[in-house]
């Protein structure tokens, strides 16, 4: 599936992105401990920035994320300040002026800032754990905006594409048995929220890998 980096204004409507990145040289560096950390950082960022994780999968040398960014207009000033303080890790800090407030609002609704922050935090942790340095990912992440409408099944197809990664890789025969994906997470009532199991069974098994 080809991915093109796209930036879209989300002031009045939610925007969905399929995000992908790979380890430099195709090295298989994401073991279970790294995948746990990726998941931890991904969901921790939801409270500090402005996005929702709709789906994800962490493989040994790459990841796919389906990210929803809500409209910028949906966040009031009180919530914005709370997230600013969480992001800065300072309960007393406040915005200097309205321009700084507007800049931060735009930042936390921007896919480049969101994923850049996520990857930077992970690389810092990884390099510290492994006593290494330098680039981990082969290139800047790719993102593709996904059409979401009653007339399109694009969102479901993307979710199936993500969920079926471990099936295509021959790791499992059913994505519910792969711990590091949103499909299994949902069935277990985990971080991606509650959803109807029959619905996800239908589209995951109804679309070919």
Automatic annotation (TrEMBL):
Highest taxon in the source lineage: Bacteria
PANTHER family reported in the protein's UniProt record: TRANSPOSASE IS200-LIKE DOMAIN-CONTAINING PROTEIN, TRANSPOSASE, Y1_TNP DOMAIN-CONTAINING
Protein name according to UniProt: Transposase IS200-like domain-containing protein
Signal peptide: none
Family annotation (InterPro entries): Transposase_17, Transposase_17_sf
Organismal lineage: Bacteria, Pseudomonadati, Lentisphaerota, Lentisphaeria, Lentisphaerales
Domain Transposase IS200-like: 12-165
Pfam (any one): Y1_Tnp
Listed GO MF terms: DNA binding; transposase activity
GO biological process, one term: DNA transposition
Gene3D superfamilies per the UniProt record, alphabetical: Transposase IS200-like (3.30.70.1290)
